[in-house]
Amino acid sequence: MRAYGGAIAAESVLADWVSMLNQAITDPCFANDYTEAYRGGRIHIVEDIQAADIHPCYRQELEPYQIRANLVIPILMREQLLGLFCIHQCDGPRAWQEDEIAFAQQVVVQLGYALEQAKLLRDQNDARQAAEAASEQQRKQNEALQIQLIELLSDVENVADGDLTARANVSEGAIGTVADFFNSIVESLRQVVTQVKDSTLQVNQSVNESDINIRQLTQEALRQSEQITSALGSVEQMTRSIQSVAGSASQAALVSQSAADTAVAGGLSMDRTVDNILTLRETIGETAKKAKRLGESSQQISKVVYLINQIAMQTNLLAINAGIEAPRGRRRPGLCRGGRRGG
User: Whole-structure pTM over 0.70, yes or no?
Assistant: First the structure.
C-alpha cells in the first residue's frame, strides 16, 4: 500500500487544543481508492471517530490531535485534486447539519477559485520571472554577440584593407560558425591570390620573353621586308628588261620574217639569174666559137673576140660565184641575202 502525506497549510483552532499547522502528516491509510474517490467529489463525514466504522490506522492518525468529529471535502480545480478541506470537532462528537456541509462546500468552491487564481498568479509570476530570466539571458547573449560581431567586423576590415593573414576569433555560437567560415574563405582567398601572383609572375616572364621574341621577329620581318622590297625592285627591273627583250624579240621576229621573205624572193631571183647566166654562158660560148672562127678574118673581129673573151671570163667568174653562192643561199637564206646585199 502506497503511503500519502502532506502538511496543514492553514487552520483555525482555539489555544486549548493541539495545533496541526505546518506539521507533516503521513497517512498510510489513504489508498488509491480514496484519491480517485475524492477526485470524484467524495465528502467524508464522521460524527464520532471512536464509534465510527473507520480504518484503525485512520483513527490512530486523528486521535493524537484530539479529534472526535471530522468533515472532509476535496478541493478540486478542473478535476484535479489540490487538497482536502477538513473541519474537526475536538470537544466531543458532532452531528453535521446540511447547512453546515453546504456552507463548507461553498467555502471549498471559493477556496478552489482562490487556489486557481493563486496558481494562475504563480504561473504568471513564474512565466514573468522566466521571461525576465530569458530576456536577461538573451540580453547577455546579444551583448556577447555584439562583442563577437564587432571583433569579426574588425577582422573583416583588416581583410578588406588587404591583410589576408588576418583571422577571426572562433568562439561558440552562430558568430563562431560565421568566423570559422570567414577564416576558410580568407584562407581560400589567400591561396587564390598566391596562385594569381605566381601566375602573374609567370605571365610577366612569358610576356618579357615574348616581347624579346616579337622584337626579334619584327627585326627579321623588317629585314625580310627590305629583301622583299629589293627583290620586288629587281623583279620590276627584270620585268622591264623582259618587256624590252620581248619588244626587241618581236621586232627581231618581224625583221627575221621580213628577211626570210626577202631571202626567199632573193633565192628565186638568184635562181632565175643563174639560169640566165647559164643561158648567157651557152650563148657566149657559141658566140666565142663563132668569134674564133671569125678572128682570123679581121683584126677588129679579134678585138671583139678579145673583148668577148674577157666578158666571157667575167661571166664565167660570175657564173661560178653564182653557182657557189646559190647553194649557200638555199642553206642560209639570211646570210646569202646579206652577202648578196653586201656584194
Answer: no
Helix, strand, or coil (residue 112): helix
CA distance 246 to 223: 33
The DSSP call for residue 96 is -
User: Cα 279–282–286 angle (5° rounding)?
Assistant: 140
Residues sharing a CB contact under 8 Å with residue 330, sequence separation 6 or more, in sequence order: 267, 336
Residue 104: pLDDT above 80?
A: yes
CATH (domain of 26): 3.30.450.40
| Cell (9 digits) for 34 | 480514496
User: What's the gap between Cα 97 and its chain centre?
Assistant: 95
pLDDT digits (tens, 9 = 90+) for 151-182: 767 767 766 666 667 666 666 666 667 767 66
CA angle, 47 as apex, 42 and 48 as ends, to 5°?
125
Residue 74 lies in a domain: yes
25 with 8: CB under 8 angstroms?
A: yes
Note whether residue 159 is domain-resident.
Answer: no
**d(C-alpha 31, C-alpha 2), whole Å:** 6
Q: Which of 48, 68, 96 is at the close of a domain?
A: 96
